[in-house]
Description:
The protein has 137 residues and is of the alpha+beta class. It is 34% helix and 18% strand.
Amino acid sequence: MNNLDNFVKKLRNSGLRPTKQRIKICEVLFTPEKTFHFTISDLVKKIQSKAEKKISLATVYNTVRAFVNKSYLKEISINSKESYFDTNITAHHHFYDEDKNELIDINNNEVESFKIKKNIPGKKINSVEVLCRISEK
Length: 137
């Protein structure tokens, strides 16, 4: 399956029509050789630098939201007003550099296991992902 077929499949699985703008969003999100973190405004800038036509903020937002809902992307909430998105959907940890507004991956082998003593009846822990806020000393 080539990239275009893969993008169309992701879009349709997410309940979205595969328009030229949405395929351009897929190219930016799912073609890079390594995973990356982004905000919606970061993604809009990146897409518009590679697109011939302008893509609306609403189209980008709705496409990203649909991809998060289908687990093609992961959302990392920094605070109540700010979220980053991650193309690496595996369970892993992050540093958040408050000085640079940057998210940095921490691999699971770089963190010792956690012991969580609280139990919620009828629920199980699927994953533990830690966000460590860092800044200059």
